[in-house]
Amino acid sequence: MRLTIARKVLLGNLLMIGVVVGGVVWIANDLRQVDEQLRIAADAQEQLLSINDIADDIDRGRRAWGHVIVRALESDRSWTHPEIAAQRRSAVNLRAPRDSVLRVVSESRFGKRESIRKNIDALTVSVRDLDQVFDEAERLARSGLPDEAEAMLHRWHEPDERLQRALSTLQLQAQDDARNLVDRAEEFRSRIIQRAGIIASVVAGLLF
């Protein structure tokens, strides 16, 4: 059946509409992927700040505990002395916010990735081991065993080395996410420009 001019125009319009709609869906899919990458990278950067906070809390806690135990061993003051008791409370109080931030990182999208999980677990174990070193050093000091307490106190280097390795790896992984986002965004930008050009060419051809 011969197509009338009106039918040809209608068919051409329908084809153009189809091309435009398909192109919009095509580009929208890329934009959704960019948005997803943005969310992943934003989460990674947020967790990087949290990881840095954890590192700061660990460092403050380590210095606080070392100071408390050394002061108690070097002086005749008892653990119930107001100054030493206050310093000890301060050292203990650093653990709760540190553990809270560590839990938030662990439960985040960043922390639930299989590649990240191993390092978060290593960080958690190292933190617990570091706490145990200071708790045991305190117990020995309270028991009147200063030499043993001092020897235990020096063992903080062992878990701290593992802890620093885990922190460093997590920080690098979060930074890699940011770099990957820049690369992916540039890739998506090029693809969107290319696809927009293809759609414009097809529409121009149909109009012609």
Helices and strands, with pairings:
Layout: H1 5-74, H2 82-93, H3 95-107, H4 114-142, H5 146-153, H6 157-207
Helix pairs in contact: 1-2, 1-3, 1-4, 1-5, 1-6, 4-5, 4-6
Describe this protein's structure.
The chain is mostly helical and 208 residues long. 88% of the residues lie in helices and 0% in strands. It contains six helices and no strands. The longest helix has 70 residues, at 5-74. The mean pLDDT is 81.
Number of helices: 6
* SSE class: mainly alpha
Q: Tell me about the biggest sheet?
A: none
Q: pLDDT below 50 for ≥5 consecutive residues: which ranges? A: none
Q: What level of helicity do the residues show?
A: over 70%
Describe the global form: rod-shaped
Percentage of residues in strands = under 5%
Determine the N-to-C terminus distance. 23 Å
H/E series: HHHHHH
Report mean pLDDT, rounded to a whole number: 81
Task: Give the radius of gyration.
Answer: 30 Å
The number of distinct β-strands equals 0
